[in-house]
């Protein structure tokens, strides 16, 4: 009876060790993703180095579901550039083209006006109440490249949260049940 009890306890110990190993592996994957994201933030100088186009306002150049890669540098922003900006009171950033840049002589600050390529008018209706221009601090980055359609994964998971939870659950189950 002692030998069987020791074997059962040994098997349980191995199972617990295996489960802990899988949990640590999952934690390392998540940590690696965060490190890569923070590294991209440092390299690109942008608080969000990758964004997904969520609307058709930039068609035909960028379509809903395209992923944009952003970079931010000290060069002055010019008309014609595609920028991603945030507006006070809005959670989701906006991807639009700069149509007008005005440098104030007294302060040297730059006022920026944007517009979606597929929109009729400029973005002043999208800006915060009473705001007519964007300033440099609103700009999150400049588009330097894109991948078409890859962002649909994000859009689907945002619009259908059940798919996100099923995917996360499946990935977690896969990590926990995989054999080394």
TrEMBL record:
Family stated for the protein in its record: Belongs to the peptidase S26B family.
Boundaries of every Peptidase S24/S26A/S26B/S26C domain copy: 39-114
Annotated GO MF terms: serine-type endopeptidase activity; signal peptidase activity
Entry-linked Pfam families: Peptidase_S24 (PF00717)
Reactions this protein catalyses: Cleavage of hydrophobic, N-terminal signal or leader sequences from secreted and periplasmic proteins
Cross-referenced NCBIfam families: sigpep_I_arch (TIGR02228)
One GO BP annotation of this record: signal peptide processing
Gene Ontology CC annotations of this record: signal peptidase complex
Keywords: Hydrolase, Membrane, Protease, Signal-anchor, Transmembrane, Transmembrane helix
Mode of membrane association: Single-pass type II membrane protein
Top enzyme category: hydrolase
Function per UniProt: Catalytic component of the signal peptidase complex (SPC) which catalyzes the cleavage of N-terminal signal sequences from nascent proteins as they are translocated into the lumen of the endoplasmic reticulum. Specifically cleaves N-terminal signal peptides that contain a hydrophobic alpha-helix (h-region) shorter than 18-20 amino acids.
EC number of this enzyme: 3.4.21.89
Lineage, opening ranks: Eukaryota, Viridiplantae, Streptophyta, Embryophyta, Tracheophyta
Transmembrane portions of the chain: 19-37
The protein's name: Signal peptidase complex catalytic subunit SEC11
PANTHER family: SIGNAL PEPTIDASE COMPLEX CATALYTIC SUBUNIT SEC11 (PTHR10806)
Subcellular location as annotated: Endoplasmic reticulum membrane
């Amino acid at each position: 009876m002692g030998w069987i009890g020791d074997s059962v306890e040994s098997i349980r110990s191995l199972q617990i060790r295996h489960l802990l190993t899988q949990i640590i592996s999952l934690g390392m994957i998540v940590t690696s993703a965060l490190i890569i994201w923070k590294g991209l933030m440092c390299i690109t100088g942008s608080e969000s180095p990758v964004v997904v186009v969520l609307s058709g306002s930039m068609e035909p150049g960028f379509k809903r579901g395209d992923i944009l890669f952003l970079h931010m540098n000290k060069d002055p922003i010019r008309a014609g550039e595609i920028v991603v900006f945030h507006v006070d009171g809005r959670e989701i950033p906006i991807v639009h083209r700069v149509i007008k840049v005005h440098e104030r002589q007294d302060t040297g600050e730059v006022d920026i006006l944007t517009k979606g390529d597929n929109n009729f008018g400029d973005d002043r209706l999208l800006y915060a109440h009473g705001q007519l221009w964007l300033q440099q601090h609103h700009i999150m980055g400049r588009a330097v490249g894109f991948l078409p359609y890859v962002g649909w994964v994000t859009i689907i998971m945002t619009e259908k949260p059940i798919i996100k939870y099923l995917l996360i659950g499946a990935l977690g189950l896969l990590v926990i049940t995989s054999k080394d």
